[in-house]
Amino acid sequence: MLGGGPAGASTALALIQRGFSVAVIEKSAYDEPRVGETLQPRIRPLLVTLGVWEQFLADDHLPAAGIRAAWGGDDLHCNDFLFNPHGAGWHVDRRRFDSMLADCAEKAGAVLHRNTSLSMSSGELRSHLGVRFIVDATGRHSSFAQREGVRRIAYDHMIGVVAFGRRASGAPAGCFTLIESAEDGWWYGAALPDDSFAVAYMTDADLYGHAERDERDCWLRNLRRTVHVRSVVGAHHFETAAHVVAAGSSRLERMAGPDWLAVGDAAMAFDPLSGQGVYKALQCAVRAADAIERWSAGVPSALHDYDAAMKRDFDEYLRIRARHYQREPRWPDSAFWRRRQSR
Questions:
Q1: N or C: which end of the chain has fewer CB within 10 A?
Q2: Beta bridge partners of 185
Q3: Burial of 309 from C-beta contacts in 10 A (0-12 / 13-18 / 19+)
């Protein structure tokens, strides 16, 4: 398993449940900030399937009541989770969440190598490590698959400019994810456990002010143009400078080979507007474990079926994504919106 994020750790857990021996190579020690803080209610059945639901609850993440969005107009509209059959959503500390999944995989029997990077070729991985099957869980870089010669298809070049902070004394703790569209992108804000919060500006890489003397000035200038996000952020203190992360939609041209497959963002990465990143990572992990089990049992079509199912999922995601962006008509001359509404 190359990568120990949510997709890699969950695939390890699902494989161990099926009787496989698994080693996980993770380049970090789960000590750096990670983004993707909001989990939808439907994450619960997957956490139950992976056997980590009780541990998740014990980690004291922050329940989320729903999403409030100013999209297509100035007013906020609420998508409430009150009647969702799976209960509340969650705002999570991603470092804690990712580390929990990795710890659970290790306790279940995975050999976990933290702070470890491998520069071997695919042939060396197979011959020197003696592995039968390789799972690429290296995130959007899809390092292993691309070393295998598989092309990655980018559908846009969106970035997220993210800052973390701490709630000011006496300020209310928000229980909703806040989304607000803007002329050159959109914003989201989410309260996190331990009185912290995350705010992100989503825009295209070429539209962000990299040429400006101070990128922070660009971020703050765009923040001041918001209405709802600005009003919430005013009650908080920033503890980190805004940093840039990749946030575009992309996928591998093929997501499996003769004795490997890709999971999570390594296979296909989603626009954060969908709120599906972590959910899809866990769903993909269970699907991948099923495919590997069938492959190990000698089913010739197992990996092809996995690849085909993943591509169908991504095509459906693109259709839903297009519908969401079509609902924001206020900036017809903006390059950001034109790029998404002309497809």
A1: C
A2: 182
A3: middle
Residues 6 or more apart whose CB falls under 8 angstroms from that of 82 comprise: 65, 66
Q: 195-222 pLDDT, tens per residue?
A: 888 899 999 999 986 545 556 678 888 8
| pTM of this structure | 0.93
Ordered structural domains, the chain, with CATH: 6-59+93-154+249-322 (3.50.50.60), 158-246 (3.30.9.100)
pLDDT at 225 > cutoff 80: yes
d(CA 104, CA 99): 9
pLDDT above 90 for 87: no
234: tokens are 């005013």
The three-point CA angle 195-182-191 to 5° equals 10
Residue 128 vs residues 121, 191, 293, 307, 310: alpha-carbon distances, Å: 10, 46, 23, 27, 30
pLDDT digits (tens, 9 = 90+) for 176-185: 899 999 999 9
Cβ burial of 130 (10 Å; 0-12, 13-18, 19+) is exposed
Residue among 50, 165, 31 at smallest CA distance from 104: 50
Q: How far is the C-alpha of 17 from the C-alpha of 247, rounded, in Å?
A: 32
Judged by DSSP in three states, 184 sits in coil
Tens of pLDDT, residue by residue over 154-190, are: 999 999 999 888 876 555 556 889 999 999 999 999 8
Torsion of CA 97, 100, 106, 107, to 10 degrees: -150
Q: How far does Cα 335 stand from its chain's mean position? A: 25
Residue with tokens 């994810």: 177
Give the H or E element holding residue 178. Answer: strand 176-182
E strands, 183-293, are: 185-192, 196-204, 236-238, 243-246, 250-252, 256-257, 260-262, 268-269
3-state secondary structure of 28: coil
Residues 263-280: pLDDT tens digits? Answer: 999 999 999 998 888 999
